[in-house]
Amino acid sequence: FQKNLRAMSQFLERVCMPYRRILWYYASIPRFYWNLIPKLSIIEPPEEEEVIAKYEEMCKITENLELDKEGKNIIFFALRDGAFYGYLYEDEKSTFIHRLDPDYCRPVQIEAGVFNFAFDFSYFKKYPEYLETWDPSFKTMYAAYERDSTNMRWQILDPQRSICIKADPSVDETLPFFIGIFEALMDLIDARTLQRNKDIIENYKLIVQRIPLFSESGGKDLDDFKLDVDTVLAFNRQLSESVPDNVGIATTPMEIDTVDFKPDDNSNDLLSTSMKTVFDDSGVSQMLFNSNVSGSVGFDGSIKTD
Questions:
Q1: If pLDDT is split at 50, 70 and 90, which confidence band does 295 have?
Q2: CB atoms < 10 A from the CB of 200, how many?
Q3: Percentage of residues in the chain with pLDDT exceeding 70?
């Protein structure tokens, strides 16, 4: 159910702002400041000009990556989907990392400490137009898939141009990093819905009209009303036309009563408790996002831990 869990994570990121803020919070912590240190041989040191030229070349390549911007996006998607899969396009002036759909990618091996991943080329059956705009290597590999759809469906992309950043070190499965708080997030959404329904109901009013009965009948005869049905309906229609939309009209000969199931505590406790659970389970202090919660010691401690 990895695909379904990723879809759930993407859904929650769209509809639940606390979840989105947690994702961006963790993605924004690394600053991605970088420094290049040449590896030089002490026994046979290279020429100074050669080192400077190579160093300048590597600085230009790294600058083009724009890690301070791209790094946040990579971590955000890695946390949300469980992994970030990308393909590198670059020239002398710029670099672009094309994010691939995680449903069509999977890690298959580790090389030099980093993940290599395979791409599901059945993707282009659904999106054939992308073959003309993506790197030509995809078109070549798709042709191999068409010749042998069984063995060539999953093909490893060029490790020199592909990037896979996982939220955990597992090769066997790719799960959203914060899967453990999904239940708390759903409870929060439910609590908000309950609160909204309660607020809506509190704005409604019900007017009850009781049809009088003939007292001399002793109430033993069925439908022994003092008013006929046409008269009742006429007054009911006039009353309905004169009240606002949030006022209901009911006409009945029976006694009407209500039974309320109200908690003894504050009505907002359910919502605040659900919100607290989300942040507690995620390991993030809600003080970072909630101005109603105070405490400098806990606030400073949370920042230091993060």
A1: low
A2: 10
A3: 88
